[in-house]
Amino acid sequence: MKLNNETLQLLKRHGSVRQFQDIPVSEEQLAVIIEAAQMASTSSNVQAYSVIAVTNQALKAELAGLAGNQAYIEQCPVFLVWCADLYRLREVTKPHLEGCASYEDSTENLIVATVDVALAAQNAAVAAESLDLGIVYIGGIRNRITEVSELLGLPELVYPLFGMCLGHPAGAVGQRPRLPLQAVLHRNRYDAEATVEQVKAYDEVTSNYMRERTGGTNAAPWSAIMAKRLAEPTRLHMKDFLRGKGFMKQ
Amino acid sequence: MKLNNETLQLLKRHGSVRQFQDIPVSEEQLAVIIEAAQMASTSSNVQAYSVIAVTNQALKAELAGLAGNQAYIEQCPVFLVWCADLYRLREVTKPHLEGCASYEDSTENLIVATVDVALAAQNAAVAAESLDLGIVYIGGIRNRITEVSELLGLPELVYPLFGMCLGHPAGAVGQRPRLPLQAVLHRNRYDAEATVEQVKAYDEVTSNYMRERTGGTNAAPWSAIMAKRLAEPTRLHMKDFLRGKGFMKQ
Description:
Chains A, B: Residues 13-168 form the Nitroreductase domain. Chain A has helices at 6-13, 27-38, 57-66, 71-75, 87-93, 107-130, 145-151, 181-184, 192-213, 222-230, 238-244; strands spanning 49-54, 78-85, 134-138, 158-167, 185-187.
């Protein structure tokens, strides 16, 4: 039983890339990456997603500003905006559904579309890395999601879930240590005690990692960093935004 | 510029597996697969997911029943239940947050956790397939999500997003044609006309595909199949369920 191969090595090497060389991504590379994305599983074949390849420099600069001034959005040759998309489905099914109720606006279908686009995007990330390209996911496009949506012309029932910088990496890729396997993997039943207990060891690992990276000035454990994050009232507009776009009506 | 490699070939080969050989998945295989899942990107390193490996035969049978009698859930050696998990975060951050507000219950954090678990699961799917194992995603566990959650002992702020059958494939894997690339890939701006227009050609492809697969008895195009799906009031309990679990409070 062989437990190693090229693909596993690739997955293990993954790290976010935030510096890119000034080299374009070719049309052929982009097509191969998006075609790989399309091969991901999709709930009942709904394919409820779209992806916008932003290559226009002025548009990238605007998006970078809206996402919290993340310079790598401007710097990367292609900025992919991954969108959950129930608009296409609603439009193409209309002729079949005259007079019938339809439920594209349910919370369930929001989840279906969100999962569909995430699975496709992760395949794209793996495909890109297999071609020696690098990526970083950008949740920051949800900071000012209304402006981002307007800028990209997103209709009702489409929302931008995250961006993804794509390009040729400049410099080495960093990897942060992950939670112990036992913290995320449960057997036959959720083990609430174990998952919390495992964080103690991880807090030590992350504290040491921070100390090394900051030359001793910061040794915050993971749980303290997470506390700071949870205490921030981040993107509290999301619920109203999604409703305004026609999602989660029921 | 090389546009092909082992990983791209693997991604292109993907198809859902619904028949499994009576061969166990080893502990080593499971660990490698979940470790690969953990290497996926995660929003600000929150790692807001858990996965429950169900190997108990009686439990698999119960879950199969709750998910709409999908026999492969019982047949596969390991049924993975992928959960969005903000419980662990809330518990480990509590000591740091005495008296402070915290926002784990926001719609934004529901989305963060849902994306986190989907990215991890897709890495697991790719890792499994690289080891010649097969998978199928099971959205059906949301049919009776309250019972599934109770059966697996899921606490507040944890919800089962989807299941995943894992095992050694028996027989060939089918692939359904996907939307044309131009239907999902937009340039610099969402193209509402093009995405709808592209479905016409796809409707022909899917209609022919159905006709061949059913020996001529069914030639429903994709848009008609999707219409039937959207017209079904599927899982309308999701909104109340998620709120009851402590999500989407704001």
